[in-house]
Amino acid sequence: MERVVNLCKRRGFIFPSAEIYGGFRSTYDYGPLGVNMLRNVKDAWWRSMVQMRDDVVGIDAAVLSPGQIWEASGHLATFTDPLVDCRSCHERWRADKIAGTCPNCGSSDLTEPRAFHLMFKTYAGPVEEESALAYLRPETAQGMFVNFLNVVQTARKKPPFGIAQVGKSFRNEITPQNFVFRTREFEQMELEYFVPPGEAEKWFEYWTAERMGWYLDLGIPADRLRLRDHEPDELSHYSTATADVEFLFPWGWDELEGIANRTDFDLRAHAEHSGEKLEYFDQGTGERYVPHVIEPSAGATRTMMAFLIASYSEDEVSGERRVLLRLDPRLSPYQVAVLPLSKNEALEPLCREVLDLVRPLCMCDYDVTQSIGRRYRRQDEIGTPWCVTVDFDSLNDRSVTVRDRDTTAQVRVPISDLTTEITHRLRG
Length: 428
Ligand code: ATP
Description:
The protein is an alpha+beta fold and about 425 residues long.
């Protein structure tokens, strides 16, 4: 864990936020490599959930939202965590995450738990009064429910169909912890899948299998991934069944994603509070019903961290220790690094030519400083799957060397075949 966190800071994946001011409580900024990788995680999700399907469409709803939404959803009344104080060292903890003793000092002299509300409040407009109260969304899901009619009418979808969204959510967590695992500002990738009431169980099974497959396909090893059904007393106020996709983190099994059967709770609640009829009318059968909802809800930032941890490895190449991220090329910050064998200026024009060829296909890095061996190590460490090296022979034979990160195997490829070669490798 410590090695991954250090690598993130040292190589520009993730920085503590506002660091020059001493940092700002458990918030993080994504650096040049992190922003590429996080984008790739979200793109991989969008590709599988929206692009490759004809029954899901996307939206991008506002983060800032009025109290009515959270009144109807039940969040204003129930979105709390149980907070306890340690009477000995005065640290504060989430009662359900500690086993009756203070993780800081070991004392079991804790206060009774009290409900702590997790939503961030602000004021919309110039006057700080009750009627101007607004909230930062604690989940993206409500954006899909309040836009249900807009989407049904404009996208002309018929259940079973889904609305997907990727975006920021905010929770005033009592104890943010474990790097970006639990932060107060984070990104979610959520699907609300609307189905005829009698089909909810079937689709719940379908989505749990589908989502497990997504993580495996992108390289999470099967022995570090599991599905865990919630016990009845763990279920959220809106859910009849929930299964968590869990990853084996360095501190043990923990949640990456929750897949919930939300029933018709949300549509009914918003219909009641807004006075709008949130139903589906099937013109074919003349049937009118409130769809039930299956929700796979994943954290993008948390998932990126799991991919980093799962891919971190150390091995030995030619007697030298090396650190590498065995990331799936679809997730790597750069897919290709173009490297001149040496800093000699004669190689630069050909490097530029190679970059111009490969850049339209994927993200490329160009690195000229230090020895070629050191530069290979630097690329291994950030998970770049292929290095393309331009050497002095390249000037005559117009070929380059393509080196593979995991095997370190090198093959010579004519520049005229390079885009075909890289395209082929990108397709896996
Ligand atoms: P917990 O009980 O651990 O606080 P939760 O079960 O309430 O979390 P959900 O509401 O199901 O979490 O959120 C869906 C997903 O959003 C989670 O599986 C996680 O990946 C992500 N997520 C939730 N809270 C955070 C957070 N504070 N930081 C980062 N990711 C989060």
